[in-house]
Amino acid sequence: MRLELPDIKRCICCVPLRYGLVFWGYVRLFETIMSIYKNAVTIHTATEDEHTGFSFIASCIIVALEPIDLVIVILFIIGCHKKNMLLLKIYMYYNIGELIIQCLLLLAITGFFMYLYYVLHKYGAAAFHPHSISWSLLSSVATLTGIILLQGYVLLLVRSEIKKLNSNCQFRFVNNAADSNCVIQLEEGAENDVEKTKEGQEETKNGEEEVKSVTNDLYGRSGYMLGDVRN
């Protein structure tokens, strides 16, 4: 079963589609730069304090991967300004990959949260407060769900813009006559009529040949008689 995705004409129902994508690109650019700066500060602080915990490892991974995101966002902004479908497609495919990873991460965190809540509830220690692990996991699930929904909406916007640009610069002509077939079915009576017609055509052809031979014979005799008269 094929799922038809909607074509969005405007961003947030009021802003022109391309301008909305340009604005989103600059927001993502600012967010990426701030993320790199924040995690770089975290790495620097952890290095000075000689505390290499989970946050330090996560910050190192983010700082290593964020430059790729930064380059993709810059290409996306250029693609929006220049109406370049190739750059927009690169951004779309990159974000599809990110969306898949985020969905898998959401499933993993949700599964771990449900397992942890079941274990804590079994021993009567299930409690939600701002400093508990369950609360942190639940907050992560809610945040990641919001990011996935926003990412999906942006992907729909980018897809609609690519489709719009593609329809504006391409024309398609379809020749349906090339694939058409003509089938003629003859009934039994019609087949007999066709055979009779063929026989009549053969008889007519034979008669024409006889008339032609007689005419040639007459012309030959006439020429012979004229030759005798001259002599």
Description:
The protein is an all-alpha fold and 231 residues long. It has one domain (10-171). The protein contains five helices and two strands. The longest helix is centred in the C-terminal third of the chain and has 43 residues, at 188-230. The chain crosses the membrane at residues 56-78, 99-120, 132-158. Residues 193-212 are annotated as: Disordered.
Please write the string of helix (H) and strand (E) elements: EEHHHHH
Helix percent band? over 70%
Total helices: the number is: 5
The total domain count is: 1
Estimated share of beta-strand residues = under 5%
User: How would you classify the quaternary structure?
Assistant: single chain
Measured on Cα atoms, how large is the radius of gyration? Answer: 41 Å
Which descriptors would you attach to this protein?
single chain; about 230 residues; mainly alpha; two-stranded antiparallel ribbon; elongated; disordered C terminus; transmembrane; transmembrane helix; membrane
Blueprint of the fold:
Layout: E1 10-11, E2 15-16, H1 17-49, H2 54-82, H3 85-122, H4 133-169, H5 188-230
Antiparallel strand pairs: 1-2
Helix pairs in contact: 1-2, 2-3, 3-4
Structure described in brief:
The chain has 231 residues and is mainly alpha-helical. The protein has one domain. It has helices at 17-49, 54-82, 85-122, 133-169, 188-230; strands spanning 10-11, 15-16.
